[in-house]
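#dry-run=false #mode=assembly
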Amino acid sequence: MRPWLGLPEGTRRGTRIALAVCLGYVLLAAFARWLAPHPVFDLRSLDLLNASLPPAWEADGQRGFLLGTDEQGRDVLSGVLFGLRLSLLVGVGAVLVAMVLGVAAGLVSGYRGGWLDALLMRAADAQLTFPAILVALLLDGVARTLLPRSVHETLGVPVVIGAIALAQWVPFARAARVGTLVEREKGYVQAAQVMARPGWAIALSHVLPNVMGPILVIATIGLGNAILTEATLSFLGVGIPPTSPSLGTLVRNGSAYLPSGAWWMVVFPGLALAGLVLAVNVAGDGLRDVLDPKQRSTVP
Amino acid sequence: MIAGLLTRLLQGVGVMLVVGLLAFAVSTKLGDPVNNMLGPNATIEEREAMTHELGLDQPFLLQYWRYLGRVLHGRLGVSYRLGIPVEELLAERLPASVELSGVAMLLTLLLGVPLGIYTALHRRSVLSKLVLGASLTGLSLPTFLVGLLLIFFFSVQLRWLPSSGRGQVVAIGPWTTGLLTLSGLRSLLLPSITLALFSLALLLRLVRGELLDVLHSDHIRFARARGLPDRAIHFRHALKNALLPVITVAALQLGNLLAFAVVTETVFQWPGMGLLFLQAVQFADVPVISTYLLLAAVTFVLINLAVDVSYRVLDPRVRSSRAGS
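#status=ok
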C-alpha cells in the first residue's frame, strides 16, 4: 500500500482541501475546552439576560457572543465546539466498533467457511434489506425499552455508538470475507498451515494485514454516514441524552425557536455538521480513488 | 427463472419469520403483561389464572405460533400510549405516509433521471456544473436541516406555505387524501421536497455516471461509426443500458424514503407512520414498535423481491446466467 498520509502524487486538489478541512475540524474539537469563549456547561456562568441574543453582527447582538446565544443564554459558538467534539467521538467510535465486528465476522466467515459462513452471510443479506438509519433507530429503541431510564441516561453515548456500529458492520464483513477468500489460497498462508500454526493466528497475523486496504477505504466512507446517523438520531431525540448536546441535539433544541425567527440556534450547528460531513465524504471519496482505484465511486 | 424466484421468495419468508420472532420477543419479554393488567395487589392464584388465560405458560415457540396467527388476522395489540388498537392507528396513519413517500419518489424520478441525462450529455455546460455542485451539497446536508431551513424561509420568513400538518384532507372510504384540496397540496410541498432531496441527488449522479460509462462502450462507438444521429444513439442505444442499474437503485431508494420519512414527518409534524413510530420509541410503546418492525420487514422484503423480478425481466443476461441457480 502506498503511503497515504503523505498523499501521493495523483491526489486531487479537492481531496487535499477536504482533508485539510477535516484536520481543522479535529483540531477545533480537540481544543474545544480552550477555544470555546464561554464554559457552557458551567450553570453559574449563564445569565438569562443574555438569552436568545442574535449573532454579533446583527443589530441586537453582543460582541461577547459571536454567533449569538440560545434560549438559556448559552453561547452558540461554544456549544457548537463542544457538540462537534461529541459528534466526532461518536462517529469515529461507531466506525471503529463496526470495523472490528465486521472484520472479525468476515475473517471467520472467509477462513472457516462452512455453516458459520452461510449463517453470517445470510444475516448480512437480511440486514442489508433494511436501511442503516432504521436499524440504528430500532436498536436504540429496543435498548431504550430494555434499560431502566437512569442506566440509559449514563449509557446514552455507548448505546448510540453500538446501535450505529451494528447498523454498519455488513460492508466491512463482506470486504474482509472476499479478501480472506483470495488470500487463503496463496502460498504464504499455505506455508503457515503446513507449519501447523493455529487457524486464528494465521487469520490474525497473516491474512488480516493483507485485507486491510479496502477496509480502511470503507471506514473513511462510513465515517460520514456514522456522523450523519448520530446527528439524525440525536435530532429525533433518541440519540445522545440532552445533558451533553451533540450537533444534532443542538439543532433539535434550536428548532423549537425557529418559528420566532431565532435562526442562529439551528443554522450554525447545522452548517458545522453539513460542512463536516461534506469534507469527510469528499476526502473519503478521494482517498478511495488513490488507495483502491478498482472500487467504483459511490458518489459517481 | 421460476426456481430462482422461488428461492428468493423462500429467503424472504425466512427473513420475515426471523423479524417476526424479534418483534414477538420484544413484545413479550419486555415488561410483565400479567403485572400490567392485574396491578401489584393481585394474589398468586389470580396471577396464575391470568398467566394461563393469556397462554404465557405455554412453550415459547407455541406462543410465537399463536402470535403469528393473531398478526395474520390483523390483531396487533393495543397501543400503551394511546389505548387504541394498533390496527386502527395504522389505518389512520398509513395514507399520510404513503402520499408523502409516493410524491417524494415521483419528484426523485421525474427530476433525477432527466437532470442526470442532461448533465451526462452536456458535461461542460454551466448548468451541469451548477446541478452537480448542488447535488453534492444535497448529499451532505442532513435531511432534518433541509426541512428546518425550508420551514424558516418559506413558512416563517415569507409565510407562503404551512410549516406543519397535512392541511385539509378528503376522506375516500377508509383512505384520507390531501391531494385533492389546495391546502393539502400546499402542505405536501415542503415535506416532499425535503424527503426527495437526498435520493434525487443520489439518483441524478448515478444516472450521469452510468450514462457516461455506456457512452464510452463499444456498441456506442459502432453506432457512431454507422453514422447514426446523436439523438438515436443517446436515447435508443445508450439510455436503455444505462437505466438498468438505475432501476435497482431507484427501488432501493424507495426503501430509504420510507426510512427517512421518520425524520421528515418529525420536522413537519406530519401525521404518518414515521412520527407514530418515533413517539412509540420515546414512550417504549412496545405493540406499536413491534408492528412497525413487522411492517418494515414486509415492505423491504417486497421491494427487494420486486427489484429481483424486474432485473430478471429486463436484463436477458441475468435471465440466462442465473436461471438455474
